[in-house]
């Protein structure tokens, strides 16, 4: 596919874009800053400007394509990861404005140009746990996509608004639009630097519902979405199958979620961020674990 990928220079994008490139896709990275990755075209785009978004989606990716009679200025899919990635980077209103307006512009242009597949980054924060003041527990565990999305901060508010926007554009167009409620993205080097501390202090992971997603497995999730057609509008939790702490899930529930309703029995080390829907509908099969990186036996 020829793919416009927004935010490819960010923490998640800089792993997902090379993953997709290595699968044979042609990628144009639309970002304010270049990725500089071999075989990936960089295009500086302010996604809050609808004219720039439209232009990015209707032009060639590089000078070499001018001499290529087979080159196209049409994209098969859009993957939209660009955003202010959390609160407390910009004022709250700017976080909301940037994330909502850029997502509206990207999806509107893609739909009006007849692009049949749009994948956008939503967030674990939509469930209202991550950036809530104090210590907030989910309504039930494990948390699936039916859990209420009642945000407590401007970033999560923007992501909920983006899901509403995406659903509206899908309803009027019939294209496939898939939202990824991405958990805490972990780069491979962070296992050695961060996870030993998490093993000693599991409470540090409560805002992420004791879950994580390996950046490489996030690339696999995008691949699954690109390969799955006809689902219409769907949102998916995206996480690795094991929790991010070194104590069994039953102990996590007892220590941190006393009194919280349990929807079903969980595996001994299972994530509290339920990924069954992505497994069932997309064939999502994450492969990486922090245990591998730290030389620990998998359960």
UniProtKB/TrEMBL annotation:
It comes from the Bacteria. It holds the Pfam family Epimerase. SUPFAM superfamilies: NAD(P)-binding Rossmann-fold domains (SSF51735). Residues 3-194 form the NAD-dependent epimerase/dehydratase domain. InterPro entries: Epimerase_deHydtase, Lipid_A_modif_metabolic_enz, NAD(P)-bd_dom_sf. This is Nucleoside-diphosphate-sugar epimerase. It comes from Roseivivax sediminis.
């Amino acid at each position: 596919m020829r793919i416009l990928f927004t935010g490819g220079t960010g923490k998640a994008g800089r792993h997902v874009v090379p993953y997709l490139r290595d699968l044979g896709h042609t990628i144009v990275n639309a970002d304010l800053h270049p990725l500089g990755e071999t075989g990936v075209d960089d295009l500086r785009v302010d996604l809050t400007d609808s004219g720039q978004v439209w232009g990015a989606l209707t032009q060639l990716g590089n000078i070499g394509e001018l001499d290529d009679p087979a080159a196209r200025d049409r994209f098969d899919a859009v993957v939209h990861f660009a955003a202010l990635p959390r609160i407390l980077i910009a004022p709250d209103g700017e976080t909301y404005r940037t994330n909502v307006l850029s997502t509206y512009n990207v999806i509107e242009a893609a739909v009006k140009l007849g692009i049949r597949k749009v994948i956008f980054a939503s967030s674990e924060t939509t469930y209202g746990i991550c950036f809530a003041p104090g210590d907030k527990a989910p309504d039930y565990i494990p948390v699936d996509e039916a859990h209420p999305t009642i945000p407590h901060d401007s970033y999560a508010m923007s992501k909920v608004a983006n899901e509403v926007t995406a659903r509206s554009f899908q309803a009027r167009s019939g294209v496939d639009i898939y939202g990824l409620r991405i958990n805490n993205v972990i780069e491979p080097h962070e296992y050695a630097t961060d996870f030993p501390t998490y093993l000693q202090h599991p409470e540090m992971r409560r805002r992420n519902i004791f879950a994580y997603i390996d950046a490489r497995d996030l690339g696999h999730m995008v691949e699954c979405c690109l390969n799955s057609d006809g689902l219409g509008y769907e949102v998916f939790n995206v996480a690795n199958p094991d929790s991010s702490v070194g104590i069994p899930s039953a102990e996590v529930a007892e220590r941190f979620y006393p009194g919280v309703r349990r929807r079903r029995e969980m595996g001994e080390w299972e994530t509290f961020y339920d990924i069954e829907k992505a497994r069932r509908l997309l064939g999502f099969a994450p492969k990486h674990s922090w245990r591998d990186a730290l030389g620990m036996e998998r359960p």
